[in-house]
Design goal:
Layout (H helix, E strand, L loop, with lengths): L4 E6 L4 H10 L2 E7 L6 E6 H8 L8 E6 L2 E12 L6 E8 L5 E11 L5 H4 L3 E4 L3 E7 L7 E4 L8 E3 L10 E2 L6 E6 L2 H20 L1
Parallel strand pairs: 1-4, 2-6, 7-10
Antiparallel strand pairs: 1-3, 2-3, 4-5, 5-6, 7-9, 8-13, 9-12, 11-13
């Protein structure tokens, strides 16, 4: 089951006025939607919401919503932050069944940069996908997808099909889509350009 429990209140007032009233009462306003039910305006105490958010396990994870004695597994789809105070300002929760197949974005991380010959020679890792959209059961969302850069040289391209995904998790994008690539060092490019220029000059002199 989900590690985070959000105790919610149902907001009687909706719209901008209702959201402002919730914030004045020390709550973060939000909307619960999805499934075969109508959207519901809800709110969570600000300190509880901040605590859940700063665990790093709120967004993109299965969360238990609790209202009185009722519970509902949900996915936190979005959290808006205030542009000045950087405090949670609004959130969206999506109803799911615990084992429901869902599509969700999971962060992609890279390890062992020091074991990549291309990067050790001054190459750069150009990342095209920082997150990967996957399809998986709601209770099996991976924390991250990790790719080992060991042995990768300049010119190597990492594609979606090269990623190792946990059991029950499949990529929801083209397997040939580029995730990242190891590009040559600027110094090498400049050196090659210089050599080419010298050769052209010598040819001109002849």
């Amino acid at each position: 089951m989900a590690e985070i429990v959000l105790n919610v209140e149902v907001r009687e007032r909706t719209g901008t006025g209702g959201a402002r009233a919730a914030r004045r009462s020390g709550l973060v306003p939000g909307i619960l939607y999805g499934g075969d039910k109508d959207p519901v305006a809800i709110a969570v105490k600000s300190n509880e919401f901040r605590k859940a958010l700063y665990t790093g396990k709120l967004l993109g994870h299965l969360v238990t919503l609790k209202y009185g004695q009722e519970t509902q597994p949900v996915i936190a789809k979005a959290v808006d932050m205030h542009p000045v105070t950087d405090e949670p300002w609004h959130f969206d929760l999506y109803r799911v069944d615990e084992h429901q197949q869902i599509k969700i974005e999971v962060p992609v991380h890279f390890t062992n940069q020091d074991d990549s010959p291309g990067l050790k020679r001054g190459g750069t890792l150009n990342i095209a996908l920082h997150t990967l959209t996957v399809s998986c059961p709601a209770d099996q969302i991976p924390e991250e997808i990790v790719f080992d850069l060991t042995g990768l040289d300049i010119g190597a391209t990492i594609r979606v099909g090269d990623l190792k995904l946990p059991a029950g998790v499949v990529a929801a994008v083209d397997a040939e889509a580029t995730v990242a690539s190891v590009a040559g060092a600027m110094a090498e490019a400049a050196e090659e350009t210089g050599e080419g220029g010298e050769a052209a000059a010598e040819g001109g002199e002849e």
